[in-house]
Amino acid sequence: MENFEFFTPTRVIFGRNTHLKVGTIVKEYGFKKALVHFGGSSAKNSGLLDAVCDALKAEGIEYVTLGGVQANPTLAMAEKGIGLCLKEKVDFILAVGGGSVMDSSKCIADGAGNPEANVWDYFLHKDAPAKALPVGVVLTLSASGSEMSASCVITNEKTGLKRGFNSVTHRPLFSICNPELTYSVGRFQTGCGTVDIMAHTLERYFSSSRDTALTDRIAEGLLKSVIEAGKIADMEPDNYEARATLMWAGSLSHNGLTSAGRSFVMQVHQLEHELSGMYPRIAHGAGLSALWPSWARFTCPADVNRFAQYGVNVWNLDMDFHNPMKTALAGIQATEDFYKSLGMPVTLKELEVEPDRIEEMAEKCTNFGKRTLPGIRELGKAEMVKIYSMAMG
Amino acid sequence: MENFEFFTPTRVIFGRNTHLKVGTIVKEYGFKKALVHFGGSSAKNSGLLDAVCDALKAEGIEYVTLGGVQANPTLAMAEKGIGLCLKEKVDFILAVGGGSVMDSSKCIADGAGNPEANVWDYFLHKDAPAKALPVGVVLTLSASGSEMSASCVITNEKTGLKRGFNSVTHRPLFSICNPELTYSVGRFQTGCGTVDIMAHTLERYFSSSRDTALTDRIAEGLLKSVIEAGKIADMEPDNYEARATLMWAGSLSHNGLTSAGRSFVMQVHQLEHELSGMYPRIAHGAGLSALWPSWARFTCPADVNRFAQYGVNVWNLDMDFHNPMKTALAGIQATEDFYKSLGMPVTLKELEVEPDRIEEMAEKCTNFGKRTLPGIRELGKAEMVKIYSMAMG
């Protein structure tokens, strides 16, 4: 087990009807004026936005609203939010939505807390925010884990670069997680979320660190539960237990629990960021789904037993002791089949990615020759090209 | 899954040599003067206390020391600490030790933060602390989980009453967890710790709540890891991986993770508190070990399948589908055998408990007729007497 720090200060308020408490909770912390940040029309049409605003009003908390965050949230939207916060003297940001809204809110919080800084510099690791406005969350999508995580990913719409950075300022102060709010999430987005949750745990699980039996077992148990719940939510969108499992697993997958004692680099996420950075129409979860099986088949020969362990402990496969590769590949196949069963793409072809842009994606993923990605197999540009090509199908 | 709040703001700094960072970490928070609180001579003799004090000195942090905390920490010691904090104008408490030292520190923090209050009133639920001094931890024992928990248990040496209460003020600000510091923990204390960690998870696992598959799997994985690591640490006290697993499992067992979505009452802990309250020579872990098998056999008929699940998923037993009780009882027996293999008592007779004091223990455990303990089987005085009697052996 490697040395680690575990710090998840976010207060999670989980369960039915919890979103109705948002006014009381914000009031507890003594905030005066909120930016209520949200996405498209669904928060409006479902009545959630009104319910949240009413709850704030009832406690005498002022607010301004800013909607319109889209998948792969942009720097332009965040800059708009920063301007609004400064103009309106907002002291608190309330994200009502999923990963895009939360990440946009975190970026706004960094910017509004440091008006002198250029917020994009943080994403280029040229600078780091010393402070930020506090962020609270009313979660509407089980996927990103951003509701408990230190991460924040933004796309610079001018350059097509999608970049993330981790900061303690990104841990939300509180997250209100009501699984009922995800009943209305459609099949495709539910599938994307399930893949994203699994990916957050899988990227930590397939690490070259050893001696992490406890963390392994937690990760394996979480993956089994997500697979079980993902299947049920796909058939019965309003199954509370399945939606609750996905939501809680989403938070635990990205808060540090499933990486305690391990080093890891999220290789598939990095490969996917270039994909959806270049093709903003591609949903993050769909990109992960299309890339993971190829990443896994490419990586597997370098640690066959790890992939076999995954097949046995997550997919209940019998271990082929004479030919562990068989078990390893069967586990990858089971994952691919599961993603397909949810209606997710498992090749880049299905996403209409042009083969002649692979070179450019790989180049961007190396940050223009400035980095390789360590892991079970280290990825340089040649390896990235190989994985993207395998994923073309 | 039931509604829940999950809030574990403690920053955990885990791994080799981490205790040497204590000065830097305390300085980060800007504290000026610490009470360094510790137990017996082992912290002194091992050189740990000197190392901690040197680290504080190196950063210019003043401190006073208070040692002598014993197992089942007393109100008298806490009152001494409160007086010292007020006299010395301490702004921070550093607990160097295990559960007893941490709980004594938490009680001191409550008292010193509220000089006008009678701190024992908190334990009688007559009052609650609105604030407290911050507490940091250098952990030397894997057992109580107090390093991440909201709990604090103190014995009033005048009345023999052992009482605990949970409070957000009890969550340590940070906990430095170096498994190497537990190499010197002897066989008996290591066994007590292993039992205590398992008990924290078992008490949450055997709940009457349903639909907690994710939390179940996390709990089962944790228990398997603790059993594995407990056996190894018993044979090889300086096995880093085993000591690390016990330490991290200890923190996760009592921070809320293994109860997310469940109601629970720690029945065996309550029964044990009366035991070691009345016989302060009995170590908490030994008391739990002596009581759990009888509690389990008494409770099992009310939820046979739950105990069978435990046998299958934790002890790798084959399910007897025609006679689940057989599997259920085999799981309890496996636990008892494991505790015995660690040199732990599995009856009260081994602890030289007098049968004619059972009545009094049960009476105290009902808080003199004022409460029953809900659970898979609700415990009133008659049921408590029955369990204590079964445990006599």
UniProtKB/TrEMBL annotation, chains A, B:
| SUPFAM superfamilies in the record | Dehydroquinate synthase-like
Q: What is any one of the record's Gene Ontology cellular component terms?
A: cytosol
Recorded hits in PANTHER family, A to Z, give: ALCOHOL DEHYDROGENASE YQHD
One Pfam short name: ADH_Fe_C
Give the highest taxon in the source lineage.
Bacteria
Tell me the ranges covered by the Fe-containing alcohol dehydrogenase-like C-terminal domain, including all copies: 193-392
- Kindly provide the name given to this protein in its UniProt entry: Iron-containing alcohol dehydrogenase
Q: Which GO molecular-function terms appear in the entry?
A: alcohol dehydrogenase (NADP+) activity; butanol dehydrogenase (NAD+) activity; metal ion binding; methylglyoxal reductase (NADPH) (acetol producing) activity
Indicate the segments forming the Alcohol dehydrogenase iron-type/glycerol dehydrogenase GldA domain, all copies: 9-179
Q: InterPro entries per the record?
A: ADH_Fe/GldA (IPR001670), ADH_Fe_C (IPR056798), BDH-like (IPR044731)
Q: Which UniProt keywords apply?
A: Oxidoreductase
Name the species this protein comes from: Clostridium porci
